[in-house]
Specification:
The protein contains ten helices and no strands. It has 236 residues and is mainly α. The chain is globular.
Length: 236
């Protein structure tokens, strides 16, 4: 732990258990996927079908943003599994963290805190929206900071540096992808697919955006179950 993280955690934690209603509201934001990914994905679908002279341009950047978000999230998982394990504030005994009302201390126990995959994913999406609509992008960035990542600090799930590192990873990959990926010829074939094969493109587009709202819990469940079945079969 470092002084920067400790000072901010101690300052925010002093407000814990002052108001049952406030703590429960923050816990609700943490639990409700609809108010996390659902809000940003709704903006993405709005931007996709928004009819104006920039529609083709917007669609290219939306696809780029979604692909970059997947890449950023995968990188986040790799870093989380390979970097030294970091306990979350609510699991760090030396902090004497005061757990807000409605928060289960066992949440995410055994999962490393660094970096924040929520920050990676949602800052990547928000940054990409800046290339589609400046107002939508600024709104998405503000919403992500206040309603998605702040609750994770307040509830003791992340240190500020977990969030900062995650935001840096997500924003950097999204910026690079939206600046350079959209220029490649191979990328153009993906965007053309939405026009030539809409009957295939939109089911894939729906499943991808649905999984983002669901924070890939379905994908993780399938992979986890498949892995366990393989291990079990190998032991027979």
């Amino acid at each position: 732990m470092n002084t920067f993280d400790i000072n901010i955690i101690f300052y925010i934690n002093q407000f814990s258990q002052h108001s049952w209603s406030f703590d429960k509201a923050i816990s609700f934001l943490f639990e409700c996927n609809l108010l996390k990914g659902g809000v940003l994905i709704t903006i993405i679908w709005w931007a996709w079908f928004k009819s104006d002279k920039r529609q083709a341009h917007n669609r290219e950047h939306i696809i780029s943003t979604l692909l970059c978000s997947l890449i950023a999230e995968l990188l986040s998982r790799v870093l989380s599994l390979t970097l030294p394990f970091r306990f979350r504030p609510l699991h760090e005994e030396s902090l004497a963290f005061l757990i807000p009302y409605g928060m289960d201390k066992s949440k995410l126990d055994g999962w490393s805190s660094f970096p924040s995959d929520h920050a990676v994913l949602f800052f990547a999406l928000s940054t990409g929206l800046l290339f589609v609509s400046r107002k939508a992008g600024v709104f998405a960035l503000t919403y992500t900071a206040l309603f998605i990542v702040f609750p994770r600090i307040y509830l003791g799930l992340h240190y500020p540096t977990d969030i900062i590192a995650g935001a840096f990873i997500g924003m950097t990959i999204s910026l690079l992808g939206n600046k350079y990926l959209v220029r490649s010829k191979s990328f153009k074939s993906i965007t053309n697919w939405s026009l030539s094969k809409p009957d295939f493109f939109y089911p894939v587009f729906f499943i991808l955006t649905y999984q983002i709202v669901d924070l890939f819990s379905g994908v993780r469940s399938v992979i986890s179950t498949g892995y366990k079945l393989i291990i079990f079969h190998g032991q027979i």
